[in-house]
Amino acid sequence: METQVILARLEPYRNHLICHPMSEDDLTNLEQQISIKLPAGLYIFLQHVGLVHNLLATRVRPFLDLFGTSQQYAWEREWAVEFFGTKARNLIPFAHDGAGNLFAVELEHETVIFLDHEILEISTLDFTFNQWLDSVVSQIIESIDRHPIH
Questions:
Q1: Which residues is 92 bridged to in the sheet?
Q2: Strands, sheet with 102-106, edge to edge from the N-terminal-most edge strand
Q3: Which of 69, 93, 128, 147 is deepest in the core (most CB within 10 A)?
Q4: How far apart are CA 6 and CA 64, in angstroms?
Q5: How far, in Å, CA of 21 to CA of 12, rounded?
Q6: CA atoms 90, 1, 40, 46: torsion sign
Q7: pLDDT at 60 (0 to 100)
Q8: Residues 30 and 73: beta-carbon distance below 8 Å
C-alpha cells in the first residue's frame, strides 16, 4: 500500500493528531543534514505528518516515539554509523524504543531495521516502512475510536 493511501486513512481524525508537515525546503535541508536522500515512504510521511515526537494528541496513548527534530535524525544517523560501521550507512534511523535502541528504514527496499545498542546487532524486521506505518495508523484509529475526545 502506498504511503499517501495509508496516511489518507487518518484524514477524518485530523483534529486528534499532532502534525507539523515539512515543506520541500525543510525536507531538502534534512537530506543535507543527514547526507543522504530520504526513501520515498519516509519522505512522504514527513511531508504530510512532519517532525513529531508523538503523533497523537495528549489524551490518546502514544504508539510512536519518533524523532522530533531534523537534528535528531542527523545525530542518530551519525551514532548508528559510528557504532555499527558500514552496515548502517544505508539506514536512516527514524524512531527509538525508549531504551536506547533504534528503528531505521533501509534505503533500497524500505525495510524496517532494528538496531540493538546493547549487543550492537542489526536485525531486519519482517515488514517495510509502509507496512509498519499501516499498522500504526490502524492502532491510532482504533485508539481514537475507543476513546473519543469530546
A1: 105
A2: 91-96, 102-106, 111-116, 121-128
A3: 93
A4: 16
A5: 17
A6: negative
A7: 41
A8: yes
Residue-wise burial string across 4-43, b where 16 or more C-beta atoms lie within 10 A, e elsewhere: eebbeebeebeebbeeeebeeebbeebbebbeeebbebbb
Q: Which residues pair with 66 in a beta bridge?
A: 95
d(CA 68, CA 54): 8
Question: HEC profile for 51-96?
Answer: CCCCCECCCCCCCCCECCCHHHHHHHHHHHHHHHHHHHCCEEEEEE
| Residue-averaged pLDDT of the chain | 85
All cell numbers assigned to 71 = 537534528
Sign of torsion over alpha carbons 4, 74, 28, 24: positive
**pTM for this structure?**
0.85
pLDDT of the residue at 59 = 37
Q: Residue 4 has what pLDDT?
A: 94
Q: Which residues of the chain have pLDDT under 70?
A: 53-64, 148-150
- Predicted pLDDT at 92: 94
Identity of residue 134: D
pLDDT confidence of residue 49: 85
Residues written for the chain: 150
